[in-house]
Write a structure and sequence with these properties.
The complex is a heterodimer of chains A (123) and B (109).
Chain A (H helix, E strand, L loop, with lengths): L2 E5 L2 E4 L4 E8 L8 E6 L5 E7 L8 E3 L7 E6 L4 E6 L8 E7 L11 E2 L3 E6 L1
Parallel strand pairs in A: 2-11
Antiparallel strand pairs in A: 1-3, 3-8, 4-5, 4-9, 5-6, 7-8, 9-10, 9-11
Chain B lengths: L8 E4 L5 E6 L11 E6 L6 E4 L13 E6 L2 E6 L8 E8 L4 E3 L3 E5 L1
Parallel strand pairs in B: 1-9
Antiparallel strand pairs in B: 2-6, 3-4, 3-7, 5-6, 7-8, 7-9
Classes of the chains: A mainly beta (123), B mainly beta (109).
Chain lengths: 123, 109
């Protein structure tokens, strides 16, 4: 059974940093493109970025609002995805989901999602 | 990359059919076949309902169907049921990103 379990969310001050983790199991992690998607309270889904399946680490793509502040990485040995968030702003407050397009790598059609972890950025 | 455009809300009575539109551009919806739809109930993670414009993943009811014409994709739900009440999001692959629609709240009257 595919499982994606996020952790690391919490309350942080503006300008601060936080690292989220996503523990993956039930599939061949090193083949998968892994993504982060967020959802601000009461708002819609927003794609954050992804890391491709090319070792080591894999090339990354980011959405414009987080480029230069967020870094996505992966550890294939522990099947864990990371999201390092720096220079946090109040508008980064959201539930952060780990998601993957296992049926078609790189398609952006996310057939598996974690349960999400809440990040709250306050001033 | 701008979000795809969806109506904020739609409604229908049990047994009826409804359609939700998703309008993008020739750089996303109009140019790629990777257009998908998600259902999200309150407090839950999104669930993939349609991929590749028209494909239904295993386990998704055949009451859900997708289509696309030009830069606009559509999700149709037939035989509305109370459990269909949820938020629905479209998304599209682009050259190097993924873009979502703003979401549509479906109310089953």
């Amino acid at each position: 059974e595919v499982q994606l379990v996020e952790s690391g969310g919490g309350l942080v001050k503006t300008g601060g940093s936080l690292r989220l983790s996503c523990a993956a199991s039930g599939f061949t992690f090193n083949n998968a493109w892994m993504n982060w998607v967020r959802q601000a309270p009461g708002k819609g889904l927003e794609w954050v970025g992804r890391v491709k399946n090319i070792a080591p680490g894999g090339p990354t793509d980011y959405a414009a609002p987080v480029k230069g502040r967020f870094t996505i990485s992966r550890d294939d040995s522990t099947t864990t995805l990371y999201l390092q968030m720096n220079s946090l702003k109040t508008e980064d407050t959201a539930v952060y989901y780990c998601a993957s397009d296992l049926a078609k790598y790189g398609s952006g059609e996310f057939d598996y999602w974690g349960q999400g972890t809440l990040v709250t950025v306050s001033s | 990359q701008s979000a795809l455009t969806q109506p904020a809300s739609v409604s229908g009575s049990p047994g009826q059919s409804i359609a939700i539109s998703c309008t993008g551009t020739s750089s996303d919806v109009g140019d790629f076949r990777y257009v998908s739809w998600y259902q999200q109930h309150p407090g839950k993670a999104p669930k993939l309902m349609i991929s590749d414009v028209t494909y239904r993943p295993s386990g998704v009811s055949d009451r859900f169907s997708g289509s696309k014409s030009g830069n606009t994709a559509s999700l149709t739900i037939s035989g509305l049921q109370a459990e269909d009440e949820a938020d629905y999001y479209c998304s599209s692959y682009t050259a190097s990103t993924v873009v979502f629609g703003g979401g549509t709240k479906l109310t089953v009257l």
